[in-house]
Amino acid sequence: MIRTQVGIIGAGPAGLLLAHLLRRQGIDSVVIEARSRRHVEERVRAGVLEQGTVDLLNAAGAGERMRRQGLVHHGIELRFAGRRHRIDLFELTGGRAITVYGQHEVVKDLIALRVEAGAPILFEAAAEGLDGLDGDRPRIRFENHGEPDEIICDFIAGCDGFHGVSRAAMPAGSARHFGKVYPFAWLGILAATPPASDELVYAHHERGFALLSMRSPEISRLYLQCRPGEDLAAWPDERIWDELGTRLETSDGFRLVDGPVLQKSIAAVRSHVTEPMRYGRLFLAGDAAHIVPPTGAKGLNLAAADVWLLSRALARYYRSGSSDLLDGYSETCLRRVWRAQHFSWWMTSMLHRFDPGDGFEFRRQLGELDNLAGSRAASTNLAENYAGLPLDGLEHPT
Ligand code: APR
Ligand code: PHB
After folding, report:
1. Which residues does 39 contact at the CB level (< 8 Å), separation at least 6?
2. Of the candidates 355, 383, 283, 340, which has an alpha carbon nearest to the alpha carbon of residue 46?
3. Which of 307, 286, 273 is nearest to 175 (CA)?
4. Which atom of ligand 2 is nearest to the CA of 221?
5. 192 partner at 20 to 30 Å CA-CA among 67, 143, 319, 367?
6. Which residues in 66-104 are b (16+ Cβ under 10 Å) and which e?
7. Of the candidates 232, 222, 22, 3, which has an alpha carbon nearest to the alpha carbon of residue 110?
């Protein structure tokens, strides 16, 4: 049996950053993670950090490697009808930028800080059930190296992603769940070839959406829209490169350079929100509470915003005994979540092919992209949402 103040389920960005922020406030926590350290450190996921997330990692003393290796981008490109249009994020938002730095690099940095500090983190320790959420000593039942064990704590943070046990532990009827599944998936590759563009490219094409991203000056990260439930075996590397080349083509002669594919995977495109993000002493954060389609690059950033608020709310509780911030946690998070849902839905709807037979929809999207390219007001709206809302109570060092 383990006793701590906050029991944290999941060592993704949400759980790890929460544990780190709490430690800096002198609050003890134990993190349990179902998978191995190696697995979570090598799992290739999202890669765009908003300015607010960068500021938070820096303010929390977790930004040292990100500052050295992250790629700071001042703009993104929209590509449609063979044309390119740059959205100048920096200029349109008064100096905000994004940083391209893989989610698993953030995870590695946070694990290293925790291990270095000697703070508890258990891998291959899967939560199986939660008890006593209504009382003031909630418990996490989990498997510790094959043996049943238990964490007794004051609060539980459910940071166990979309497929975790926390959301499922909320009694029926205590929360509402809102979801949407899109009629396509994303096939993603990591490739050992220098990115063919200095900035991210979001491409609209009659064959479907494509995205050119990167992880470093030598490593590209690319995605293409495919059918849901698509079999990876139907996508040999040459077919992927051909398709990406076609979708990213421009009339001014852009050329995609292929290279060895290091990793490939298919991910569903969906939205989900659980309201409220709390039941009794259980607080959900990150993907456990909400999923956004990846087109807006918001998933990781929402997770960071949640745990920033949760860490402040818990710090206030332990310092003054006041639970006002804890009581406001869900509502405050959900406002940002629904704005991100809207933005992610909008980007997704503007850039993907929903129905290949629908010529009206295709031309309507081109009309919308043309409007974006020609209107500073429309571009500013995209830029503000993409670069992200500042985090309340955190200064952006200018
Ligand atoms: N017990 C312990 N750990 C668990 C359990 C369980 N029962 N179930 C799941 N986990 C772990 C998973 O193995 C995973 O490492 O919880 C972690 C959840 O991490 P993420 O899925 O990365 O979720 P989160 O930390 O909320 O980060 C959100 O992840 O999917 C991306 O785009 C999304 O960038 C966003 C980010
Ligand atoms: C990524 O680099 O993995 C990435 C970038 C932008 C997105 C989604 C994913 O919108």
Report:
1. none
2. 340
3. 273
4. 2
5. 67
6. beeebbebbbbbbbbeeebeebebbebbeebbbbbbbbb
7. 22
Pairing of strands 201-203, 48-49: unpaired
- Type and span of the H or E element at 191: strand 176-191
Q: Provide the token pair at 345.
A: 């839905």
Q: Say whether 386 is catalytic.
A: yes
Residues 6+ away with beta carbon under 8 Å from 255:
196, 245
Under the banding of pLDDT at 50, 70 and 90, the label for residue 397 is low
Is residue 7 within 8 Å of 138, Cβ to Cβ? yes
Q: Would you state the structure tokens that stand for residue 344, as one six-digit string? A: 């992610």
Conformational region of residue 395, where left means phi above 0, alpha means psi within -120 to 50, and beta covers everything else:
beta
**How confident is the model over 276-323, as pLDDT tens digits?**
999 999 999 999 999 999 999 999 999 999 999 999 999 999 999 999
Starting at the earlier edge strand, list the strands of the sheet with 29-32.
121-122, 29-32, 6-9, 155-158, 282-284, 278-279
Tokens 């200064």 belong to 395
At 234, which amino acid appears? Answer: A
Between 299-320 and 13-24, two packed helices, what is the crossing angle to 10 degrees?
30
Pair 305, 317: CB distance under 8 Å: no
pLDDT tens digits, one per residue of 185-239: 999 999 999 999 999 999 999 999 999 999 999 999 999 999 998 999 999 999 9
Nearest ligand by distance to the CA of 124: 1
Find out whether 51 and 94 touch, Cβ atoms under 8 Å.
no
Neighbours of 232 (CB within 10 A): 12
- Residue keyed to tokens 């050992």: 192
Label the pairing between strands 176-191 and 220-226.
antiparallel
213 lines ligand 2 (CB under 6 A): yes
Confidence of residue 396 (pLDDT cuts 50, 70, 90): low
Residue 213 Cα, ligand 2 centroid: separation in angstroms? 6
